[in-house]
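Model it.
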Amino acid sequence: MKDSKSSIFRQEELLAVAPMIAGNYRRDLVEFTDINPVFILEKADQMDAKVTEIRSDNLYHSKVSELKGVTEGMAAEMKLLAKLTNKIAYYVAQSEGTITPAPNDFSLRQLRTAIRNGNVEGIVSMGDRVKNNIEANLDGLTAKGFKVEYLSAFSTHIDKLMSDNILQNNLIQERNQASVQTKLLYDELWTMIREICEAGKIIYKGWDDAKAKEYTYRTLKQRVNQSA
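Modeled.
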């Protein structure tokens, strides 16, 4: 929010506070209009409409949910790849002396590090090296029991992670864009709330403290939390 006082309210609290303020404002419209004719009934209607607009704006939450699903899927994919990489490492070690490069230079250690760090770019890069090394030594590895389908599965995991990484990056951008739009909507609602509350506190200060409190941020916050 643009004003520091808006930090008093969480976003969900603003959505609950706004109808309270709109109701108070409708009740007290005569006093508001008396102090300034800009205070018209439509301001309450606009506040209600803004709350409805925010509640119907599901794009941000949709992108967050999609991103979570993709990220969790990538984590699961990395576990499967790590398991398969260990299996490949076993056959590479068994083939020592008959393959080139030697097991320690097969890029498996670097691949494991990339998997552990969740570094998809590193996984793709090191995965390609491992794949090329396997293909160059396929006869020697299969002689020790290595199965060709391991290579196929290995390539599938790498390709899936690469495509999911692109999707993840796109969703991050879309989520951030949606977040900016959502924040603008809350800023607009906060501007409406602030205008009415600041005027209400001035109008009723000293002669109707009960009503003045109904336009005080802390009192409104307490009432929202008590009714939750």
